[in-house]
Amino acid sequence: AKTGELLFELNSETPLRPASVQKLFTTAAALERFGVDFGLATWADVRDGDLLIVGGGEPAPGDDRPPNPGE
């Protein structure tokens, strides 16, 4: 919160691996930037017996606008 008010706390004294905590900051930034209704599509297909996974996009720091899923 802009006021500095604590909004949520759970096991704040428990040491955590940095990657676990970093996901919270990344998620918060994405929600603020793109909104809760934004999503990126990922498709899965089987071709010739191989599993193919295709990501629909990845926003990068400094992008002026969200990527267009399906481009």
Brief characterization of the structure:
The protein is α+β, with helices and mostly antiparallel strands and 71 residues long. The protein has one helix spanning 18-34; strands spanning 42-47, 50-55.
Give the oligomeric state of the chains in this entry, treating copies of one chain as homo and distinct chains as hetero: single chain
Q: In sequence order, what are the helices and strands, one letter per element?
A: HEE
Report mean pLDDT, rounded to a whole number. Answer: 78
How would a crystallographer describe the biggest sheet? 2 strands, antiparallel
Keywords:
two-stranded antiparallel sheet, 71 residues, extended, alpha+beta, 2 strands, 1 helix, 24% helix
Topology:
Elements: H1 18-34, E1 42-47, E2 50-55
Antiparallel strand pairs: 1-2
General description of the model:
A two-stranded antiparallel sheet has the order 1-2. The chain is an alpha+beta fold and 71 residues long. It contains one helix and two strands. It is 24% helix and 17% strand. The radius of gyration is 17 Å and the shape is extended.
